[in-house]
């Protein structure tokens, strides 16, 4: 939760994803594609700033 320049409050999200068995490039592509079709992501699209962080372990 953070304050907007206009004086209100807003939510933003840092989503940390750990994946095994893929290259970093393919893991990032998978996470991005999944985020685009996720019902929750679609419901909040344009209302919440989401930053994706993908790590291959």
From TrEMBL:
User: Gene3D superfamilies under this entry?
Assistant: 3.30.300.20
Q: Name one GO biological process term.
A: response to oxidative stress
InterPro entries from the UniProt entry:
KH_dom-like_a/b, OHR, OsmC/Ohrsf
Q: What is this protein called?
A: OsmC-like protein
Task: State the organism named in the record.
Answer: Acinetobacter puyangensis
